[in-house]
């Protein structure tokens, strides 16, 4: 059983194809990042998964139930899409009461969820008095009310300060350890990289990657960065490594060589044999952000 | 509810306090005399006269409560919790209908209380107001005003679903029902037999309004407006069920 399984999912608005032939799986019990440039179709895809909009073509399953029958799976799903949306004149707790009553969840969960997201002492204040970060936290509390098996969050850290972002990151990790599947879209790729074991990447409405985050990062060109005791030796070293099939470039006082980390020992030997003393050998793997930009080059 | 009390109090007060005014004390400058008010039906006249303004309140509340789910964005949160859209819509309608019922009850109580309070000042005898005929008439009037209020409210909800904006749905609803219809019925009298606002007015009054001689009968008006509003509700319900819910 997968948490999310999508095949050929497509959404068109007239001539505009917002999502084209999206196919990916999200395993149960993982944190899966959902990334892509603005306008790549992330929110449209999430809306289709939550049955807010109907797909033009394709199919999908959430927790082994078809997305054409949302009543079969939404009771086990928590979601916050396109930011928090609540009634301004009601308090945070009252807003959660509306959601809990509609979903048939015990009202006793409300104070627990408010405490969990750090709103325990502001639950009785009107929603319109909340800051952006507090509104975001209330949205997450509402998503957690059903004690979901699958949590779908669209930009959950918007408006949060660094401490708040860390709290959310820790919360999501804790939920994943409890067996909850988390499907989170975010522009903060550094955060996604830290917590997501799986990744789905969109570009112009198409899925360009889905799978383990580690797998994506390993596809990127690994680099070894070296510094020589004498900077003048870098040119000589560059010629040597170029000649044996490892392109290199000098940037300041560093030589960046396209090579796997395990080649470091050979590099060290090569340099030593040529009378070049290396003072630093550092394997560098591109970050998710660098990989993302490389794969979506030219997008805004 | 304050608006409901205020609106009812205003209409009933004018009915009694302007009883001797040359400008009349009812709509369209008509005069409701002491003799008419002293009848068993007199106790209900103020209440039925405020039905139109109650209708505006209901239309505004239903329209705003429906359309605001779109403007606040709360509709998507509700649909994630209750994806069966027709059920959600019906639940919302029942909640607003309960509000309308309470508003009509409060209006009835206000109009009766104020009628008794002002009867002395207006020198209107109240003996007939405590008879069984008066009670029967009051219950009938209550039923008619309630039906008319539900009708206005349903129109408000239909507009809210179609236009998805509180301002647009309220302004178009109020504008059409209370301004455009008036102009059309003046320009071409038979048009009133097909306008929802005019038909609801007949229903609220239990028949033709005072001074109207060629008006449609109560049953015909009720059937026509029920069909119109029913069709509108059905169509907007289908649209709501199928329409994409975007931001």
Structure write-up:
- The complex is a heterodimer of chains A (300) and B (247).
- Chain A has 300 residues and is of the alpha/beta class.
- Chain A has 2 domains: 2-218, Rossmann fold; 222-284, 2-Layer Sandwich (Alpha-Beta Plaits).
- Chain A contains 10 helices and 14 strands.
- Chain A has helices spanning 42-49, 92-103, 109-116, 132-144, 162-177, 189-195, 213-219, 233-243, 264-273, 288-295; strands spanning 2-13, 16-27, 31-35, 57-62, 65-66, 77-80, 150-154, 181-185, 198-203, 206-212, 223-228, 248-251, 254-258, 278-284.
- Chain A has a 6-stranded mixed beta sheet with strand order 6-7-8-3-9-10, sandwiched between helices. A 4-stranded antiparallel beta sheet of chain A has the order 2-1-4-5, with helices on one face.
- In chain A, a hairpin with a 2-residue loop joins strand 4 and strand 5 (65-66).
- Chain A is elongated.
- With 247 residues, chain B is mainly alpha-helical.
- Chain B has one domain.
- Helix content of chain B is 74%, strand content 0%.
- Chain B contains 10 helices and no strands.
- Chain B has helices at residues 2-17, 34-37, 42-49, 51-72, 74-81, 85-119, 132-163, 166-187, 196-205, 218-242.
- In chain B, helix 7 packs antiparallel against helix 9.
- The chains are: A alpha/beta (300), B mainly alpha (247).
- At the A-B interface, helix 2 of A face helix 5 of B.
What is CATH's topology name of the largest domain in chain A?
Answer: Rossmann fold
Mean pLDDT of chain B: 89
What would CATH call the homologous superfamily of the largest domain in chain A? P-loop containing nucleotide triphosphate hydrolases
Proportion of helical residues of chain B: over 70%
Q: List the helices and strands of chain A in order.
A: EEEHEEEHHHEHEHEEHEHEEHEH
Helix content of chain A: 25-40%
Uncertain ranges of chain A: none
Greatest interface (CB-CB under 8 A), with counts per chain: A-B, 22 and 17 residues
Spans where pLDDT lies below 50 across 5 or more residues of chain B: none
What is the oligomeric state here?
A: heterodimer
**Rg of Cα set of chain B:** 19 Å
In which order are the strands of the major sheet of chain A placed? Answer: 6-7-8-3-9-10
Question: Which structural class is indicated by helix and strand composition of chain A?
Answer: alpha/beta
Total helices of chain A: the number is: 10
Radius of gyration of chain A: 24 Å
Distance between the termini of chain B: 32 Å
- The gross shape of chain B turns out to be elongated
| Count of folded domains of chain B | 1
Q: How confident overall, as mean pLDDT of chain A?
A: 90
How many structural domains are formed by the residues of chain A? Answer: 2
CATH class of the largest domain in chain A: Alpha Beta
């Amino acid at each position: 059983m997968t948490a999310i399984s999508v095949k050929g999912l497509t959404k068109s608005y007239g001539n505009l194809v917002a999502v084209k032939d999206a196919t990916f799986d999200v395993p149960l019990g993982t944190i899966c990042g959902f990334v892509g440039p603005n306008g790549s179709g992330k929110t449209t895809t999430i809306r289709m998964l939550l049955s807010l909009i109907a797909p033009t073509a394709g199919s999908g399953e959430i927790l082994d139930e078809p997305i054409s029958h949302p009543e079969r799976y939404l009771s086990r799903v928590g979601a916050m899409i396109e930011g928090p949306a609540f009634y301004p004149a009601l308090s945070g707790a009252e807003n959660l009461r509306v959601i809990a009553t509609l979903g048939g969840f015990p009202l006793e969960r409300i104070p627990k969820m408010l405490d969990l997201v750090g709103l325990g002492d502001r639950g009785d204040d009107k929603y319109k008095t909340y800051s952006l970060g507090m509104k975001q936290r209330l949205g997450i509390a509402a998503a957690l009310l059903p004690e979901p098996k699958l949590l779908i969050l669209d930009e959950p850290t918007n408006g949060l300060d660094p401490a708040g972002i860390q709290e959310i990151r820790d919360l999501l990790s804790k939920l994943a350890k409890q067996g909850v599947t988390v499907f989170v879209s975010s522009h903060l790729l550094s955060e996604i990289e830290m917590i997501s074991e799986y990744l789905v990447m969109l570009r112009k409405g198409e899925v360009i990657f889905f799978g383990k985050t580690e797998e994506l990062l390993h596809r990127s060109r690994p680099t070894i960065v070296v510094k020589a005791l004498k900077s003048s030796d870098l040119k000589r070293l560059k010629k040597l490594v170029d000649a044996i099939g490892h392109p290199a470039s000098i940037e300041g006082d560093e030589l960046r060589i396209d090579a796997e980390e395990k080649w470091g020992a050979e590099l060290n030997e090569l340099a030593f044999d040529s009378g070049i003393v290396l003072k630093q050998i550092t394997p560098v793997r591109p970050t998710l952000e660098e990989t993302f930009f490389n794969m979506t080059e030219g997008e805004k | 509810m304050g608006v409901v009390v205020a609106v009812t109090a205003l209409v009933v007060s004018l009915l009694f306090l302007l009883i001797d005014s040359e400008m009349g004390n009812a709509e369209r400058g008509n005069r409701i005399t002491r003799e008419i008010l002293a009848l068993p039906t007199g106790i209900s006249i103020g209440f039925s006269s405020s039905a139109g303004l109650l209708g505006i309140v209901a239309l505004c509340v239903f329209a705003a409560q429906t359309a605001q789910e779109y403007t606040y964005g709360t509709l998507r949160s509700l649909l994630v919790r209750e994806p069966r859209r027709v059920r959600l819509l019906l639940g919302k309608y029942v909640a607003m209908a309960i509000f309308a019922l309470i508003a009509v009850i409060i209006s009835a109580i206000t109009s009766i209380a104020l009628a008794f309070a002002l009867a002395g000042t207006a020198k209107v005898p109240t003996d007939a107001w405590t008879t069984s005929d008066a009670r029967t008439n009051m219950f009938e009037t209550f039923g008619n005003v309630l039906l008319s209020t539900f009708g206005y409210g349903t129109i408000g909800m239909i507009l809210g679903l179609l236009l998805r904006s509180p301002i647009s749905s309220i302004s178009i609803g109020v504008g059409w029902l209370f301004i455009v219809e008036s102009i059309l019925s003046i320009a071409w009298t038979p048009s009133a037999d097909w306008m929802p606002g005019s038909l609801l007015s007949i229903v609220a009054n239990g028949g033709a309004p005072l001074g109207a001689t060629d008006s449609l009968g109560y049953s015909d008006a009720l059937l026509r407006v029920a069909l119109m509003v029913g069709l509108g509700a059905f169509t907007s319900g289908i649209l709501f069920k199928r329409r994409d819910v975007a931001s």
